[in-house]
């Protein structure tokens, strides 16, 4: 039996990621204040407080090492002369799940605090990352969910466009 609420692929992490995508795209009772089930319920407005949330931020842990996964990418921008460029490479341990297909291939968007949009190469583990005012970067990576053994869901939030 899978650990997802609505999916049972045999991969617990993939099933949770699918539940998150389903809940986020559709914008139950639990005993935990923080966790995947509570975050999904909060996203869906099944809690007592005001909603307005659109994202369940996640931290993923690599199989074999049990270490948190850090994603990398670069934002693109347009120069004043109309040519295109990119920022320095950015990194994040925190992601918004954009999609996951039947083969457990997931698209994740890097989330960063507005204070960390650049120069975040100091991140050694998730506790180094500023979680106040997380925003979307527009930087997406594709991962194989089968490579992960654990997912930590952070409380559901409303993210802003960081680009």
TrEMBL record:
Pfam family, one: Spore-coat_CotZ
Domain of life: Bacteria
Protein known as: Spore coat protein
Organism: Compostibacillus humi
UniProt lineage: Bacteria, Bacillati, Bacillota, Bacilli, Bacillales
